Amino acid sequence: SLARRCHHRSTAMLDVPFLPFCAFLGTLGLLCVAMVGTWCQHWRGGFSLDGSSRTFNWHPVLMVTGLVVLYGAAALVYRIPNTWSGPKLPWKVLHGSLALGAFVLTVLGLAAVFCFHNSQGTPNMYSLHSWMGLGTVLLFSCQWAAGFGAFLLPWAPAWLRALYKPIHVFFGSTILMLSVASCASGINEKLFFSLKNGTTAYKLLPAEAVFANTLGLLILIFGVLVVAALARPSWKRPDSDSPDSRQ
C-alpha cells in the first residue's frame, strides 16, 4: 500500500550507516574535550597541582574526558560490525579496558576537586552536583566490577550472564545520562560561582558563559546520540549465546 511504501521510504532516509555516525560522534566527543580544556585554559587560568583553582581545573577536563567521552566509546564497542563475528573475548577486553580508563580518569578528577576544596577550606559534598556526581561514580564502580565478574572471569555460568546482561546494558545507558547531567550541573555551578565579583555577571551572558553553555549542550547531544545508538535495533550485535558460553 501507499502508506507502507511511505513508511519504508522514511525508514530508509533515517537509516544512517554506523561507521559515519561513529566518526561524527568521535569528532563531537573530541570537540567536547577540546572545549572544556580551552575553557579552563583561557578563562579559568590554566592547570597546576598546587591546590589552587588551577588544580580544580583538572576536574572538569578529566570528568568530561573520562565519564562522558571515553565511557561513551566503551559503551559503543559492541555496536561495531567487526565485533559481530569471531571470538568475542578481545572485544570484551577492549570494552572493559576503555571503561577502566574512564574510571581512572574519573577518580583523578575527583581527587583534583577534593584537593582544591581541602586546600581552600571549602566543604566537600554539599551541592546537588556533588551528590549526583559521586553517586554516578559509585554506580559506575559497581557496574564495572559486576561486568568484570560476570563477563570476563571464566567462572560465571551462561545462565548468570544471560540474566545479568540486560541489567548491565540498562545501567550502562543510565550511568552515561547521569554523567551528562552531572557535567551540565557542574558547568552551571562553576559559572554561577565564577561570574560575579569583578567579572561580567552570568545573567549578562559574557563570552565565557556562551562558550561554557555551548559546551554543556554539546555534552548533552553527545550523550543522547550514544544512548540512541545503543537503542537502535539494527546496530545491536546478533544475540548468540554459544560463542559467549564457550569462552
UniProtKB/TrEMBL annotation:
Coiled coil spans: none
Cellular compartments annotated: Late endosome membrane; Lysosome membrane
Pfam families according to UniProt: Cytochrom_B561 (PF03188)
Gene3D superfamilies: 1.20.120.1770
Catalytic activity: Fe(3+)(out) + L-ascorbate(in) = monodehydro-L-ascorbate radical(in) + Fe(2+)(out) + H(+)
Cellular component terms (Gene Ontology): late endosome membrane; lysosomal membrane
Transmembrane segments: 12-36, 56-78, 98-119, 131-155, 167-187, 207-231
GO MF terms held by the record: metal ion binding; transmembrane ascorbate ferrireductase activity
Enzyme Commission number(s) from the entry: 7.2.1.3
Keyword Iron: yes
Membrane topology: Multi-pass membrane protein
Ranges for domain Cytochrome b561: 24-231
Keyword Iron on entry: yes
Cofactor(s) needed for function: heme b
Entry keyword set: Electron transport, Endosome, Glycoprotein, Heme, Iron, Lysosome, Membrane, Metal-binding, Oxidoreductase, Translocase, Transmembrane, Transmembrane helix, Transport
InterPro entries tied to this protein: CYB561/CYBRD1-like, Cyt_b561/ferric_Rdtase_TM
Top-level division of the source organism's lineage: Eukaryota
Subunit structure: Homodimer.
Function, as annotated: Transmembrane reductase that uses ascorbate as an electron donor in the cytoplasm and transfers electrons across membranes to reduce iron cations Fe(3+) into Fe(2+) in the lumen of the late endosome and lysosome. Reduced iron can then be extruded from the late endosome and lysosome to the cytoplasm by divalent metal-specific transporters. It is therefore most probably involved in endosomal and lysosomal cellular iron homeostasis.
PANTHER family linked to this entry: CYTOCHROME B561-RELATED, LYSOSOMAL MEMBRANE ASCORBATE-DEPENDENT FERRIREDUCTASE CYB561A3
Full protein name: Lysosomal membrane ascorbate-dependent ferrireductase CYB561A3
